[in-house]
Amino acid sequence: MSKKKLLFKEHKFFDEAGDTAFYAKGRVPIIGKNGVSNVFLLGMATFNEPLQPIRDEVIRLQQEIQASPYYRNVSSVIKRVQKKGKYFFHAKDDLPEIKKEFFDFIKTIDCSIQVAVGRKSIEIFENEHNRKEAAFYADLLSHLIEHELGKHPRMVLNIAERTNSTAINNLKIGLQKAEEQFEEKYPKKENNTKVSFTVHKFIDEPLLVVADYLCWAVQRVFEKGETRYYDYVINQIEWVIDIYDEEREYTPKNPLTEKNKVSPQTP
């Protein structure tokens, strides 16, 4: 593999699906209630072809949607243009027709994603994360980074901004935990990978949209038991690890099914 090819693999793109909310006021559990998710997941996308042409094509497709008479009166398109000055893909709110267009585009790209899923457990949140949402995020991040350590001389982690969770100090906590897990699992392997972080506003890095869509497809399985989107792009979902369920791993040969739907935790 050429050095130029390896450079694509050294850049990883992270986005999430779901939320990290556990409590309402008064520490009342709200997992699975009032639009609060049952799981939070973080995905790491890798592209195996030049990055800029993909960015350019995502931008072109977004501009096409914004200019299309067919989508002119669609509220989700209008709101993004009015609030951010331009339309951008976002799986959670996009119309089914738009989702189909962008999923079709993703299938033409040489890319893959690895996904860490965290079931929202009050016990784990209190005992392992000290009731800190940033610590929950860092835990998932560590499981993704761990698998890439030692494979590349350097890695640039391009991460969608998410309040305190993506503060550099918290990202470094996730990296440190990943390095400790790597050393524990592979005591005879050497880790020479130098890791750096770049935090982006979602709207400013078009490649994050690919991670967003693939994460959303996985989330639909865990939240709704709906596999149609996941099945459609399954060959680009390298693996999914359910880290608080005995670290169960799912791949295209051992896929997620509707049975992976998570029910809300009862107090």
Overall description:
The protein is 40% helix and 20% strand. By secondary structure, it is α/β, with parallel strands linked by helices. The strands form 2 sheets. A 7-stranded mixed sheet has the order 7-6-1-4-5-8-9. Strand 6, helix 7 (168-185) and strand 7 (194-200) form a beta-alpha-beta unit. The mean pLDDT is 94.
What is shown here, in short?
The chain is an alpha/beta fold and 267 residues long. The chain is 40% helix and 20% strand.
Give the oligomeric state: single chain
Number of helices: 9
CATH class: Alpha Beta
Order of strands across the main sheet: 7-6-1-4-5-8-9
Q: What are the defining features of this structure?
A:
single chain; 267 residues; alpha/beta; Nucleotidyltransferase, domain 5; seven-stranded mixed sheet; two-stranded antiparallel ribbon; 40% helix; globular
Write the layout of secondary structure elements.
Layout: H1 3-10, E1 11-18, E2 23-24, E3 28-29, E4 39-47, H2 51-67, H3 75-84, H4 96-106, E5 111-119, H5 122-127, H6 133-146, E6 154-160, H7 168-185, E7 194-200, H8 207-224, H9 228-232, E8 237-242, E9 248-250
Parallel strand pairs: 1-6, 5-8, 6-7
Antiparallel strand pairs: 1-4, 2-3, 4-5, 8-9
